[in-house]
Hints:
This protein has helices at 2-9, 22-41, 48-58, 69-90, 103-113, 116-136, 141-211, 216-242, 283-303, 341-352; strands at 269-275, 309-317, 320-327, 356-361, 367-374. The protein is α+β, with helices and mostly antiparallel strands.
Amino acid sequence: MVTVRRSIWHEPRPAGAPPIGRLDWLLVGVLAAAALVEGLVRPGLAWRPLVTVLALALMPTLLWRRRRPLMAALVGWGVAGLLSVLQLTANAEDLGLYSMMAVLILLYSLVRWGSGREMVLGTVFVTVVVALGMYASSAVWVDVLGGSVLLMLFVALAAVFRYRADLVHRQQREIRNQERVALARELHDTVAHHVSAIAVQAQAGGVVAGTHPEKAAEVLAAIESEASRTLAEMRSMVRLLREEEAVAYSPQLGVADLPALARADTTPTVEVSLDGSLTGLARPVDAALYRLAQESLTNAIRHARSATRVGIDVRREGNAVRLRVSDDGHIEPGPASQPGFGLLGMAERAQILGGSLSAGPGPEGGWVVEAVLPVEVLA
Length: 379
């Protein structure tokens, strides 16, 4: 209980309070007109001019009920308390306008938009004013019960809308975090692959320039092509991050695009093998298989020492698809290092889809990455 009280006391104001709009001005105008008409025509109203002026002075507080909820509640309910004191002093039976029920809106706004401190202080003040008013009007227990239920109803409604909005805000923030992680993973996979290809072509170009200068133009053209593709995909991702609306984004690649990764004119050579029925895969699985193979190939090109071959093998096994990427390089002994963003992103891809991923030295040397993903993804 102590912890709950402390958490309420330190709770900040909710974010996203709307500014003053036309509806707010309309509300104030309608209530002010109602208070003026009621003050003029209501029979048997004691202290008519003073009560009418106080009711009219109360209405502008509705305009700052979101920006300064505690101040608005103190002023509004303070006016109601002042009328209760006057009623008690003058021993009057009826002192107040029905239009002053607008203070209930101030109570709602206090709980909906106030901080924890403001809520506690404001509700204590409102409770004192309500108790004073009931005492001044000599209310019977039925009126006390009905008034208390009405006040608690407004407080409960404000609390429900407050915490519902907070829940929606948290869900949106979680969705944005997931989207950022997915985009970071996509950016890493795409750029790392293309940059690695550029680096390999540049290394080959250094050798070719000395022995076969006539082939240097082909190497430069390949480097230019990879750089252009990298730049185009990066621009698409940047637009996706900067703009809220959907942007034109290149279609996601899949298993059918894996043969394009095969290379026989570079070292290491890349061989792609597709076995079994690999059509009809769920789109997330299809895209994940391509990205996993692409990232594994990138890692092999960058880290496999003296590798001459990288094999990419995808095969259907019942209701699952197995991806295996292996190379014939060797691992230099050294201290164990933490896995980088590549392996982390690959493991996340597999886990999100309900699959598994393993990476480590192969039984015959080299490095092996294996991923098993379900053919269908449960919604």
